[in-house]
Amino acid sequence: MNKLESLALGRSVPHTLVRFALPVIAGLLLMRINTAVDHVLVGQAISTVGVAAITICDPFVLLITALAVLVGDGGSFVIALSMGAHDTRKAARAAGTGIAAAAVLSLAFALTATLFADPLLRFAGASETLLPHARPFLQIIAWSSLFTAFSSGISSFVRTAGYPNRVFAIQTISILCNIALGYLLVIVMDTGTAGAACATAIGQAAAMIATIAFLLKRDMPFKLRARDLVPDFRMLFKTAALGFPSSALRITDAFCIFATNFLVTAFAISALPHGTTTGGALAASGIENAVTAFLLVPGIGIATAARPFIGYCSGADLPRRTYQFARWTFICGFAALLPLWAAVELAPELFVGMFGIDAADVPFACWVLRASALTVPISMVRIVGTSYFQASGQAGIANALIVLQQGSYILVKFIAFPFLLPVFTQFDHLQSLFLGSIGGGLAAVAITAAFLFRERFVIQGKIAESEA
Fold first, then answer.
1. Are the CB atoms for 179 and 206 separated by under 8 Å?
2. What residue intervals traverse the membrane (predicted)?
3. Is 6 within the bounds of a domain?
4. What domain count does the chain have?
5. Pick from 377, 404, 444, 455: most CB atoms within 10 A?
6. Which of 257, 332, 255, 345 minimizes the C-alpha distance to 300?
7. Is residue 2 situated within a structural domain?
C-alpha cells in the first residue's frame, strides 16, 4: 500500500484532510507572500510608481502561472486517478508529459514577451512614466517562466504522491531566496523592478532544482524514466482537459486585471476621489489583487489538499469516501477563511500600509480592499466546486462550470456594475467598478452551488448502488 492509498483509506476524513492540508496551506501562504514581496519591496523603494508598474505586469505573471497549473494540476489529477487504479506506469507517463509540455509552453511565452514587451505593456495600460519600470520586470520574469512552471505546477506531482511537506520545503526555498535577494537588490543596491524580478527568478530556479530532486527520489510511487519525457499526446489532451479549469481561473484573472487597469485609467479622468492619483488607483487595484489572493489561501489550500484523495477515491470507485472528502473540504475551508477575512474588514489600513504607497492614496486603497473582500467567506463554494469536478475526473462538467463562473463574473463586474450602477445609485463609475467584485463573486457562487446541488444527488445514487 503506497502512502496516498493509506491516507485516503484511513479512518478519520477530517483528521486526514487537516493534517495533509497544513503544509499545503503554509506553502501557498509562502507563494502568496512571494508574489507580494515584489510589490512591497518596490513600493518601499519607489513608492506608488513602483507598485503601479508591477501591477501593470501582474496579468503576465498570472499567464505564466496559468501555463504552470495547466500542466501541473492537470497532470496531478491524471496521476491521482492512475494511482487509484494501481497503474503507476501511467502515472509516470503523465508526469513526464507534463514536464515536456511545461518546457515548450515556457519557451513560447518567453519569446513572445521579449519580442513584444512594449506593445503588450502599453496595451495593459502602462504610461511612458511606468514603462521603464515595467519593461525589465516583465522580460526577466518571462525568461524565468520555466522555473515558475516547476515551482508552481510540476511540484504538485510530489504532493499528489503523498508528500505535501516536500512541496512546502520547495516553496520555502523559493520565498527565502526571494526575500533575501530582493532586500539586497532592491533596498540595498537600489536596482528597482529589475532587481525584484531577478530575486524572484533565482528563488524559482532554486525551487525547480529541489522539485527535480524530489521527483527522482526512490520512495516516489511512480518512477520517472527518460522515455517518459516524450509527450504522450492522448495523455496530454486529458491533462489539458482536467487542468483547464485551474488555468482558466488564472487566465480570467489576468483578463480582469487588464480590464480593471484599462477602466481605472479611463474613469480616473473624472471620478478620482480627492487626493488620489491615477497611479494611486492602479496601485489600489494591485493591492486588492495581492491581499485578496492572500485571504483565499486557507480555503484553496484545503481544497488543494483534498484533490489527491478525491481523485484516488474516484479512481478506486469509492463514492462514499469521495463524498466525505468533498463535504469536509467545504466545512474546513469555510472555517479557515474567516479569521483573515475578519482582520482585513476590521483593519484594512494595516494591510495597505505594507505596500508603501503615498499617504494620499491610502484611504481609497482601504475602501477598495474592504469592498472586494466582502465575498471571501462564501467563495469556498466556488473553490470546492471547481476542485471537486476536476479531481473526480469530470473534465466536461469542470470546464462548463469554469466558463459559466468566469463568464458571469466578467459580465457583472465589467459591464453591469460600472456602467449601470451609477445610473441608479450615488456611486460613480470608478467605485462601481470595484463594487463589481461583489456582484461578480455572488453570481459565480450561485452558479457553482447549482452544479454542486445536482452532483449531491448523483453521488448519493452511486453510494446507494454500491452498498445495495
1. no
2. 12-30, 37-56, 62-82, 94-117, 137-158, 167-188, 194-216, 254-273, 293-313, 325-344, 364-385, 397-421, 433-453
3. no
4. 1
5. 444
6. 332
7. no
In a domain, 3, yes or no: no
Task: Please report where in the chains the cell 458571469 appears, as a residue.
Answer: 408
Q: What is the pLDDT of residues 326-356, one digit of tens each?
A: 999 999 999 999 998 999 999 999 999 888 7
Grid cell in block for residue 364 = 481609497
- What burial letters (b/e) apply to 76-115, b meaning 16+ CB within 10 Å? bbbbbbbbbeebbebbbbbbbbbbbbbeebbeebbeebee
Q: Position of cell 502515472?
A: 91
Other beta carbons less than 10 A from residue 264's beta carbon: 23
Query: What is the C-alpha separation between 6 and 1, in angstroms, rounded?
Result: 6
Written as nine digits, the cell of 411 is: 459580465
Task: Please state whether 9 falls in left (phi above 0), alpha (psi between -120 and 50) or beta.
Answer: alpha
Whole-model pTM? 0.73
Alpha helices in 272-354 (DSSP H): 278-295, 297-315, 319-346, 348-352
Per-residue pLDDT tens over the stretch 120-156:
998 887 888 889 989 999 999 999 999 999 988 899 9
Would you say residue 47 has pLDDT above 80? no
Instruction: Cell 511612458: give the residue.
Output: 128
